[in-house]
Each structure stands twice: as structure tokens, then as C-alpha cells.
Design a protein that fits this description.
Helix 1 packs across helix 8 and helix 8 crosses helix 9. Helices cover 40% and strands 16% of the residues. Strands 6-5-4-1-2-3-14 form a 7-stranded mixed beta sheet, sandwiched between helices.
Length: 395
């Protein structure tokens, strides 16, 4: 398989924040030519601060940017010409926004029936479909925040899980529609929903309630499925997660840490018994691990094949030896010229990582090149720049 399997596919992206751009990022780094359509002042996501400061550089690299006035007739003519040559159109604007400009799904199907039109929205069809949604909104109403926080304190997950996963489902739908187009010659309409994505994430807990007949407890208060599945403190005041999820692993744990007495305790012989005995088992495991430093605990766990993990912060991943050795981080040039490293797509294609990677585009940095590809002359481009219809040319 080619490391850029989507080479030759052109995507026109009308998207901001995370859900839509994450879809475009995946397509771009699989080889598609993703053209991000921005207003003259640039995507508002570029200007976010606080916890949103990383959104734009994370989800918009490897794309080309064209900046134009979508409300101007000539700006709309440019967009139409772009879409006429596109394989895919993606958008996550408020419902009806692109329809009002003549670029809704019906409009595009009329002048480019081969285009796959993908909308990334808060909700799929139904009573909620015109509501405004954010990742946090659907985490609250979809049960994920309830499951994440301690009882009585709903807490959103620590990353934009629904936005990113919603973008991934959009990609799946797009690829399926492109495959169908190979046979039919016509594009399709794809819609990905944040709320439905969240429901999919918590389906395991819905099924748990259906199977057990009992209300599901939030994760911090849950009864784990395994006897040992916790975060423990070590002698050097560090924290490590350790799991023991099979009876073989329990025997290995007891042997590795010199606790033959626990291995011979019939009341701990099976995982269901260890789950039932957690009240006395976990304090004992905590004492065993607290007697050693973190490096020693991790070395033992790795040697005998036990699940373990140090408790890392996001910034620790910049220096993670596995990510750095396995092409898991790519050098990325931010819009201001700063160099950093960010995770690559978590995929190997025939043993190789996807290699279609590029910098985070400046506002409209590709406007001139894209307009030239569309057949506009240098004089026409200069006139549009002077009239304030397009931006970024000459930067």
C-alpha cells in the first residue's frame, strides 16, 4: 500500500474548531489535497487561547489555505470553481449556513454530482438536529461526563474525544462513499454527529446496565472488572498504574514480587475472587509497590508482561522514547515559524507511517497558487486582491 493512498483526491474544507478540521487532517495525511477555505481574517480557531490554543496547529497541518470573502459574488464564484473540481466537500458550520450561500448538499449535487458531501454536526437527524452542540455539551447529555467524574461531579474527558472521533467517523463515511462512487459514478451525502458519537462511546455502559440489571456507577466509584486495576504510589513518591487481568498474570505478579503466600491463597485464586476481595487485596498490593521505587516496579512489570504505565502529562510525550524512535512524532512548523513536534496519525500502512505531512498554513498562504490552478490569470488575481475579495497572496 502507498504511504499516501488518497493521492489525487481533492477535498474542499469549510470547517473550524476541531471536529471538521480533524476529518481534514486525516484525509490530508493520507495523501489527499485538502484546501481549507478561510475568511479573509482567517479561521477564528487561530485566535483561541487557553485550552483551545492547540486546536488550530494540531488539526490543520498538511492542508492548503485559501482566504476569500465568501459573501462577495466573486468569492462565491471562486468557491464554486473549487468545488466543481473537488472529490469531497466537508463542512461543520451551523445548519443552513452553506445553503444560504448556494453551497449546500443539494446545490453541490446539482453542479458536481460526483462530489461526496460530508457534514459534521452536533446531532444527526431527529428532534435535536438544529441545536448548537460542543464536545462538552454532548459529553454532559450523552453520559460520558457522568461516567468520568466522581459521583455527583460530572467531568468532561481531558481531550476533545467526541470531536476527534466524530472526525474519524466522517472519514470512514467519506471513504465508503468514495468506494461507492467508483461503482455508481455519483457522490453521496455523509453526516457525522457529535451526540451520536458520544452515545456510541458509552454503549458499553448501556450494555452493562442491560446485562446486570443494575445502575452503572461512574468510573471513579465503579467496581472494576479485574481484581488489580489501579494507580499506586511508589517509594519515590511517583504514581504508576498496574493491572493484573488474568490468573496467569496474578501468578506472575506474586512470583516477581516475592509473595508466594498470596499466590497460594485460595481466596485470591481467580479474578472473580480477587474482585470480591479488593477491600483487603488493594491495600496489600499498595504496600508491595510502595516498598520499591518507580523504575524498579516498571522494570519488573515489563519483564514479566504485566500491564503498567507511569502517570504522564501531555508535555512528557515530546520526549517519549517510543514515539521518537517509531516516527510517532513529526516536526511541525507553526504559523509563526516556531518548530515543534506533534503526534502523527496512529496508523501503519504496510509497516510504514503515513508520510504526507506539512506545516500549519498561514492565512491564505496558498491563495495565489490555488487561483492559478483554477485558471485565473495573474492580472485577475491582482484585481481580486486589490478589491479585497481574496487574501494571502504575496505573503
Amino acid at each position: 500500500m502507498s504511504a499516501s493512498p488518497l493521492a489525487g483526491i481533492r477535498v474542499v474544507e469549510f470547517a473550524h474548531m476541531v471536529m471538521g478540521p480533524s476529518c481534514g487532517l486525516i484525509l490530508a495525511e493520507l495523501g489527499a489535497d485538502v484546501i481549507k477555505v478561510e475568511p479573509l481574517e482567517g479561521d477564528n480557531t487561530r485566535r483561541l487561547t487557553g485550552s483551545g490554543a492547540g486546536f488550530f496547529p494540531t488539526y490543520n497541518r498538511s492542508k492548503r489555505s485559501i482566504a476569500l470573502d465568501l459573501k462577495h459574488p466573486e468569492g462565491q464564484a471562486i468557491v464554486r470553481r473549487l468545488i466543481e473540481r473537488a472529490d469531497v466537500v466537508t463542512e461543520n458550520f451551523r445548519p443552513g449556513a452553506l445553503d444560504a450561500l448556494g453551497f449546500g448538499a443539494d446545490d453541490v449535487a446539482a453542479f458536481n454530482p460526483r462530489a461526496v458531501y460530508c457534514s459534521l454536526k452536533g446531532f444527526l437527524s431527529g428532534p435535536y438536529e438544529r441545536r448548537t452542540a460542543l464536545d462538552e455539551v454532548v459529553q454532559m447529555m450523552g453520559g460520558l461526563a457522568y461516567m468520568t467524574g466522581p459521583p455527583g461531579r460530572p467531568l468532561r474527558a481531558g481531550a476533545s474525544v467526541n470531536d476527534v472521533m466524530g472526525g474519524m467517523f466522517a472519514v470512514i463515511g467519506i471513504l465508503a462513499s468514495l468506494r461507492e462512487r467508483d461503482a455508481s459514478g455519483r457522490g453521496g451525502r455523509i453526516k457525522s454527529g457529535l451526540f451520536e458519537n458520544c452515545a456510541f462511546l458509552v454503549a458499553q455502559h448501556m450494555a452493562q446496565q442491560a446485562v446486570s440489571g443494575k445502575k452503572v456507577s461512574p468510573m471513579p466509584a465503579r467496581l472494576p472488572a479485574w481484581g488489580v486495576y489501579d494507580v499506586f504510589a511508589t517509594r519515590d513518591d511517583k504514581q504508576i498504574f498496574v493491572g493484573v487481568v488474568t490468573d496467569r498474570q496474578w501468578a506472575a505478579f506474586c512470583d516477581a514480587f516475592g509473595r508466594a503466600d498470596l499466590a497460594g491463597d485460595e481466596t485470591l485464586a481467580t479474578n472473580p475472587k480477587r474482585v470480591a476481595a479488593r477491600e483487603r487485596l488493594i491495600p496489600e498490593v499498595a504496600r508491595i509497590l510502595a516498598a520499591r521505587d518507580a523504575a524498579s516496579v516498571m522494570a519488573i512489570c515489563e519483564r514479566v508482561g504485566l500491564p503498567f504505565a507511569p502517570i504522564a502529562r501531555p508535555e512528557d510525550l515530546f520526549d517519549d522514547p517510543h514515539l521518537n524512535a517509531a516516527d510517532g512524532l513529526a516536526d511541525v512548523t507553526l504559523s509563526d515559524g516556531t518548530m515543534t513536534k506533534l503526534p502523527t496519525l496512529p496508523l501503519e500502512l504496510d509497516g510504514a507511517r503515513a508520510t504526507q505531512r506539512g506545516a500549519v498554513p498561514r492565512i491564505g498562504q496558498d491563495t495565489g497558487a490555488i487561483l492559478a490552478e483554477l485558471g485565473f490569470s495573474p492580472a485577475e488575481i491582482s484585481d481580486m486582491v486589490a478589491a479585497g475579495i481574496v487574501g494571502g497572496v504575496g505573503r
